[in-house]
Amino acid sequence: MPSLPSWERPPSDVAAAVRTIKSAIRARIEASGRSIDEIFGVVADLVSVRAGEIRAANGAAGTAWPVLDYADIAAGTVSAESYSLLRRRGCLVVRGHFDREQALNWDRQIVDYVDSNDFFETYRGPGDDFFGTVGSKPEIYPIYWSHAQMQARQSERMANVQTFLNSLWHHTSEGTEWFEPDRNVLYPDRIRRRPEGATSKGLGAHIDAGTFDLWMKAEYQQAFRHVFDGSIEQFDPWSAAHRTSGSQYPSTTMTSVFRTFQGWTALSDMDHDQGVLQAIPIPEAIAYLLLRPLLGDVADDDMCGMIPGQVFPVTERWHAPLLEALSGSPDIGAGDSVWWHGDMPHAVAPVIDQQGWGNVMYIPAAPWCPRNEDYAAAALAALTSGASPSDFPDEHYEQSWPNRFQTDELNHYGRQSLGLD
Question: To 5 degrees, how large is the angle CA 216–CA 217–CA 222?
Answer without folding.
Answer: 105
